[in-house]
Amino acid sequence: MDGLPESQGFERQSLARSIAAGGIGIIAFGAVLALAWYSAATLLMLFAGVLFGVFLTAMADLLRRVFGGNQTLRLVIVCVMFTGLLSGVVVLGGATIAQQATALSSTLRAQLGNARDFLEKQGVDTSFLNVNARTASTDNGATPIPAPSASPSRGPKLPDASTIASGTGAIVSQTIRILVRVFEGVGNFFIVIFLGLLLAAQPKVYRDGILRFVPRQRLPQAARIIDDISETLRRWLLGQMATMASLFLLTWIGLTLIGIPGALVLGFITGLLTFIPNIGAILAGALIVLASLGSGLTAIISAFMLYLAVQFLEGNVLTPLIQRHAISIPPATLFAAQIFLGVLFGVWGLALALPLIAVIKVVLNHVWPDQTATV
Fold this sequence. Notes:
The chain is mainly alpha-helical. The chain has 13 helices and 2 strands, in the order αααββαααααααααα. Helix 2 crosses helix 4 (161-201). The radius of gyration is 28 Å and the shape is globular.
């Protein structure tokens, strides 16, 4: 009888500790979710840097099979090769790319104007297709400066100082806003590059650093998960780059033979949009068809047939052949993830949906192998 109160007190203490631990866990989980939500853009940018580091490591590993050498030397060779390739493209084709980009922009604007006129004749509201600023107030949000009005007795009436000051202030603020966005984009680009270089220079150091936070009994499983994630992303990135390069060359050569203006730029855009599954192909096809509208019916049909042939080749030959051992995700799952992440996080979520789903799939295959083995 004397021991009963002590056992009840012990049970109450255990229950209190369990409740406290559960409450702390819920609060910590909510805090992590809130942090991930408010810093999602930064986290996705860091994930892009990790992807770039995995790509550089994969390229360095390919060089190891050729002539060996240490990791740093191979990474330097890879960086020099890519820098030389990009410099050569800019030096040799920079003028052509700029000229074709200007011509393509003019062509797309003209075709959008023609489509708008056709839809207006059919009684369709075309305000979403109005690419030309109707007034100065709709151009980048700048406040319009009224045009001088003529007076029969006094001649032209110049705007007063307050109107000039307000218009100048709006132009300056808009210019500052544009410069901030440009610097932000350039800064994000260099952050991704720099982070990828740091990760690729010493991948084992960062892998071992992550494993230090894992309990000892879970260490082997965590090491396998990290290695499988790295291998999956490595295979997918190499296959994706090969697919993008193939579609770029095929589209460029095909549109050049057809005679579509801006073939080089359209080929580059097609290859770049291939990085975004499903949605990228639709955007590339729309641009190709839109650019060919001014070249005649034969060119339109030929460009559309070329697009269908390239997409058939990509979906039935290149992707199954190059990426048969990389990632296998059901199309509906991938498309739903793209829409969800795109709505939440914009372009970053849309572009990185596939590798994020691949990472989640690898983790689930290790945590619940029986349930996800057939996915």
